[in-house]
Automatic annotation (TrEMBL):
Subcellular location field: Cytoplasm
Protein name, UniProt field: Endoribonuclease YbeY
Classification via SUPFAM superfamilies: Metalloproteases ('zincins'), catalytic domain (SSF55486)
Protein's organism: Lachnotalea glycerini
Record: residues binding Zn(2+): H131, H135, H141
GO cellular component: cytoplasm
This protein's record includes keyword NAD: no
Highest taxon, organism lineage: Bacteria
Length: 165
């Protein structure tokens, strides 16, 4: 598994964020039975930049905590069979890895929400990656039933990692 990280903020995370990224991504992929080696791109940014991205891609004039840009057009969540039908579109030709997509996280929101929800910065960061990885695996939360599924998976994954509130 490859994860590429771009840090586009001066605000530093006070923990080993690469270790958390690695643990969370691997746990989500294991949890979702992904049969491939994968590639995920992560951008750590600030509220100003994520606000701009939110406006450009979603027409939302405010910052958000995380944005997910999945590369796979799933028929149903975590049904990876679709990628076999179009390898050129979904796999990196240089590495052979399945390209899941991009995650953009506001470091400002990590600190703000950790304080707001009264849990650690590590827990908030791990939650945002878990949430976003589930989006990259085809899950959504637009409908109540979908949201319930995502919330349960998030809780189970974080619990298995020992990252609790």
């Amino acid at each position: 598994m490859t994860f590429n990280i771009e840090v586009e903020t001066k605000k530093q995370l006070s923990f080993d964020y690469k270790k958390i990224i690695d643990e969370v991504i691997n746990k989500v992929l294991e949890f979702e039975n992904c049969p491939y080696e994968t590639e995920v791109n992560l951008v750590l940014t600030d509220d100003e930049e994520i606000h701009s991205i939110n406006m450009e891609y979603r027409g939302i004039d405010s910052p958000t905590d995380v944005l997910s840009f999945p590369m796979i057009d799933y028929i149903s969540p975590s049904d990876f069979s679709i990628v076999e039908k179009n390898e050129r579109e979904y796999f990196n030709p240089e590495t052979g890895e399945l390209i899941l997509g991009d995650i953009i996280i506001s470091v400002d929101k990590v600190y703000e929400q950790a304080k707001c929800y009264n849990h650690s910065d590590v827990r908030e960061f791990a939650f945002l990656i878990t949430h976003s990885m589930l989006h990259l695996c085809g899950y959504d939360h637009m409908e109540k039933a979908e949201a319930n599924i995502m919330e349960e998976k998030q809780s189970q994954i974080l619990s298995e990692l020992g990252i609790n509130r």
